[in-house]
Amino acid sequence: MKFTKSIKNILVAGALLISGASCTSDFEEINTNPNIPSNQPSAAQYFTFAQLATSGVGHETPRLNSLSTGVWSMHFTTSFGTDNQTWVTGTGPMWVEEYFNNSYIKVLGNLLAAQMQLESESAGYAMMEVWRVYHAHRMADLYGHIPYSEAGKALTDGILKPKYDAQSEVYSDMINVLSAAIAKLSGGGNTFGAQDLIYGGDHAMWAKFANSLKLRLANRVGNTSAIQEALNAPLITSLDDQALIPYSGQGDVWNMGSNGDVFSFSWLLSHPSQGILNVMTGRDMDETNDDPRLSVFFDNSIADSDAKTPWYTPTISHGEVPAATNIFRVNQANLGGADSPDLLVTAAEVAFLKAEQSLSEADFIAGVNLSLSHYGLGDDVEANYPVFAAKLKADFAANAKAAILTQKWVAIIGNGPESFAEVRRNRDLFYGTILQPNVDYVKTIYDNFSFDRLDFPNSEKASNAEGVEQAKTLPDNFWWN
Question: Which superkingdom is the protein from (predicted)?
């Protein structure tokens, strides 16, 4: 793909060569950066590629989501046998390496190349800053301390081995960057049009996205002033507002037209975990109070038969190689299909973030309704599913925070990095209250995670050993501690 070829050229090490003889007749020749091809893509094209690269190409998506973070957050279990235990502990070098490199080269690299063509005060530049923060927060959530302030500066400043910044400093700066971007986007207008795959270039929608992302980050680190600022600003509140990457499903799993998770689900490598099945069935055999999303997310049909496996039947254990035909599967008509969108920030998540702050039953039910509506199940849980609604309200009355976090966890299925963050952020509630040891999960594997973050990839250790060693000297004051 020509974008890939161009970005490889752009990321050639070296600083911008700015000649002092800028007033000569040879201005254009002397002041041309030899590391940038003359026929490079436009800023809009770079932005399109950076958006598509968010979910990776081929293996990158399932390795980040359905086969790793989606497992660690107990949405899925995988059937690869004993090798799978490497993924559970996050130590498989191949698995941690792909997303790290993808984020810095394919996403950040393209964003920086695009921003070099734009004025820093422009709305288009601000949109790219929001996108940069989205990726930086994912990286900081997965790896802890990360290259941030000097990341991507090989081209502009000749920094070949960027320093690592403390996660707390990264989060503080990201919230400030979002605030600055929101100010530039709140006036309305349009930049990039259809080449912006998320909002068609609409500034107001990008401001909502930025505010909602700010609420997510501020809530994670307990920044009360930033939380209040976000709550007082326009947020993602409807399905039309949601930030997502659309896919056409055209081509095969290895190109950018398809959601890469189709690989692990189509090949029956990932299945619903016992934890999420138990939560959605109420841990009983009474199907009248089951979560209506159960058959939307998962498939319990038996191969070559009209029969179905009861939802309360135990699913495969983690790492078990299935031999039966009645194993539960992911329903790819709604989740992890080739044309399933990559959900970045949803209206349901924002409603639950608001509910966390207000501890309001109305905000809680609003989050459930938005999740149901997203999957075509109506927008009124009390009217359409009264038995399930009664159970939700009873759960809320018993423990409001646990009920909110449980339904938020269910609603964000498919967004593994965010689900993994939720489990770590609320570890005490998830282990023992929301999920019961040796009932919803195998205690020896999942209880008291042996890891909270991914190890830095071998390629980074080889190319930036100084930075990796410097990261080890930074305080372990991660937001999940």
Answer: Bacteria
Exposure b/e, 122-152, CB count within 10 A at least 16 = b: ebbbbbbbbbbbbbbbbbbbbbbbbbbebbb
471 and 145 in contact (C-beta within 8 Å)? Answer: yes
pTM as predicted? 0.88
Position 130 in a domain: yes
Q: Are 330 and 270 in contact (CB under 8 A)?
A: yes
DSSP state of 201: T
* Domain residue limits at 198: 55-93+118-253+339-456
Q: What is the CATH number of the domain that holds 347?
A: 1.25.40.390
Q: Of 262, 213, 354, 225, which is closest to residue 56 (Cα–Cα)?
A: 262
The answer as to whether 128 is a domain residue is yes
**For residue 47, is it within any domain?**
no
Q: Which two tokens stand for residue 453?
A: 């973050």
Q: Encode the chain (481 residues) as per-residue pLDDT tens digits.
A: 333 333 223 222 222 222 222 333 333 333 344 555 567 899 999 999 999 887 656 566 667 777 778 888 889 887 765 444 445 454 554 565 777 888 898 899 999 999 999 999 999 999 999 999 999 999 999 999 999 999 988 878 889 999 999 999 999 999 999 999 999 999 889 999 999 999 999 999 999 999 999 999 999 999 999 999 999 999 999 999 999 988 876 655 455 666 767 766 766 667 899 999 999 999 999 999 999 999 999 999 988 788 899 998 888 776 666 666 668 888 888 887 778 888 999 999 999 999 999 999 999 999 999 999 999 999 999 999 999 999 999 999 999 999 999 999 999 998 989 999 999 999 889 888 998 888 887 766 555 445 688 888 888 999 999 999 999 999 999 999 8
Domain total for the chain? 1
User: How crowded is residue 390: how many other Cβ atoms within 10 Å of its Cβ?
Assistant: 13
